[in-house]
Specification:
Oligomer: single chain
Strand content: under 5%
Largest sheet: none
Radius of gyration: 23 Å
Length: 514
């Protein structure tokens, strides 16, 4: 099967999973917000917020292992893959212990003056936090299996596990609605059990399906490979951990100055952005193994082209769904939620703008990681990741409004972070700045400006409601489709799209009657 067909097939599996899980997740959020109330929902997001961050930590850490697995897959070395798997199992066991101890130490500071939580809710918050620690450790230890599924490009099973996880979360929310007791405690415990169940399913499958999933550390020990993986995983972990600490820290800073109600608004913004991000991340999930395998094969030009394509279409896909939401956020939140927390509308808009701007270089990062020289890159990313926490605390101390959190975030992560990624792509991959501007930046910005201008013009003379929302969505789809084809896609990308069209719709044509 060709690379293009394989990416298309895997993307199809992931989009099917995405369509199901988004619907379930949005309904789950509505249920749990009504069951807990704004204050307890805010407490869960600030104390148990790291549970939501586990997905990002898991994906980031799996990316480090997946880079070596996919690289060796490109080399065609199955024996080396067994060594990589065993070393990654050992590494992530050690990382899980470090993370568990770090969370225990951090918990003492959280509940002794750092968090602004009502005294009568501290016990419930501590139980949620304790459940989180156990869940985190087991999740980290299953990262090697996630990496194997991605390196093997088995997106069908990966999609099945994702659907099971969403159903379990829905069942947890339904149970909280009907069970008697402290609903925050019950929800925290149930949510901590979900990753344990899904990850055990993944582990059993990988050991039965893939020959490289054999745990024999003594037999497959390799000191040189261990040193390479430790260095790469360490720098990768620095970057991903600092990102997660920053996101969690921003929530703590917001809580310290403004209380749990603002955390509820932030939680809603995170839910919305997280669901919309799946549209762009789905395509990247199928593309990232191709980037690493191409580097393993020595095809640097393919790495650069795939990195450009990933960033460009990730931006276009996220823009397609985020533009209508940014424009109609007030109406959508009123329909979706029974009670919209204060600041939730503005937080959602700014969060979506932040993530949208980050898509411009998202696959450039994948290319840098595939090349492997990430020490200085990760150090700079780590500094930029932590910087917003410090600056936001300073601005809040000077009595700036809550939305300053997102302004600082956009400046540090999107603008400065994007510039750092482009510099290292030029230095390590030989990427041309001019080529990036022509292939990615200019087409994406032009498309987005036109989409926002047209939708904002439309809402200026129509009354708020379902009819206006439908028109905004329709115009967004048409504009992104037309401009994405004529402005965004190059000749080779158009050929792939035509091939996909023929593959999908050619089978639907009726055979002529005899």
């Amino acid at each position: 099967m060709s690379t293009a067909r394989r990416v298309i097939k895997n993307t199809g599996f992931l989009y099917a999973k995405m369509g199901i899980t988004i619907f379930i997740s949005l309904y789950t959020t509505r249920l749990i917000l009504n069951a807990l109330g704004a204050s307890d929902f805010g407490i869960f997001n600030i104390v148990g917020g790291a549970i939501a961050m586990l997905g990002f930590l898991n994906a980031a850490m799996a990316g480090a292992t997946q880079r070596f697995m996919s690289y060796s897959e490109g080399e065609g070395d199955r024996e080396k893959q067994r060594k990589i798997f065993n070393i990654s199992v050992l590494l992530h066991f050690l990382i899980s212990l470090i993370v568990g101890i770090a969370l225990l130490i951090a918990g003492w500071f959280f509940f002794n003056g750092l968090l602004n939580i009502a005294p009568d809710r501290k016990y419930a918050a501590k139980i949620v936090y304790g459940s989180l620690i156990i869940s985190t450790m087991f999740t980290v230890m299953t990262v090697p299996y996630d990496a194997v599924l991605n390196a093997r490009e088995n997106m069908r099973y990966y999609a099945m596990v994702g659907i099971i996880e969403s159903v379990l979360k829905l069942l947890a929310a339904v149970a909280v609605v009907y069970l008697i007791g402290d609903k925050l405690v019950l929800y925290g415990i149930f949510m901590a059990c979900v990753p344990l169940i899904t990850m055990m399913i993944m582990r059993v499958y990988c050991h039965r399906k893939y020959e490289e999933c054999v745990i024999a550390p003594k037999r497959y020990w390799n000191k040189k490979l261990m040193k390479q993986m430790t260095g790469f995983a360490g720098w990768s972990f620095l970057s991903s951990a600092s990102s997660i600490i920053s996101q969690y820290g921003m929530g703590i800073v917001l809580n310290h100055f403004f209380g749990t109600i603002l955390n509820a608004a932030q939680g809603i913004a995170n839910q919305i952005s997280g669901q919309l991000m799946t549209f762009s991340q789905t395509a990247l999930k199928a593309l990232n193994p191709v980037i690493a395998k191409s580097e393993g094969n020595g095809h640097r030009e393919m790495v650069i082209r795939a990195s450009f394509a990933g960033s460009k279409f990730s931006f276009i896909l996220f823009s397609l769904f985020s533009v209508p939401f940014i424009v109609e956020a007030d109406y959508i939140l009123k329909v979706w939620l029974a009670h919209v927390p204060a600041w939730a509308v503005l937080f959602c808009r700014l969060q979506l703008l932040r993530i949208l701007s980050e898509q411009l270089t998202i696959s450039i990062n994948s290319g840098i990681y595939a090349q492997g020289d990430i020490k200085i890159f990760s150090q700079l990313k780590g500094i930029l990741n932590i910087l917003p926490v410090i600056l936001t605390a300073l601005f809040f101390y000077l009595r700036f409004p809550p939305y300053m959190l997102y302004i600082v975030w956009i400046f540090c992560w999107s603008i400065l972070g994007g510039m750092v990624a482009l510099f290292f792509a030029h230095k390590n991959l030989g990427m041309s700045y001019e080529r990036y501007m022509r292939a990615v930046f200019i087409p994406c910005v032009l498309l987005n400006v036109v989409a926002f201008a047209c939708t904002l013009f439309l809402i200026s003379f129509l009354a708020e409601g379902l009819f206006r929302l439908s028109l905004v969505v329709a115009i967004s789809v048409v504009l992104h489709g037309v401009l994405g084809w004529f402005v965004g896609a190059d000749r080779s990308e158009k050929q792939i799209a035509i091939q996909l069209y023929k593959t999908l719709f050619g089978k639907l044509k009726l055979k002529p009657a005899r």
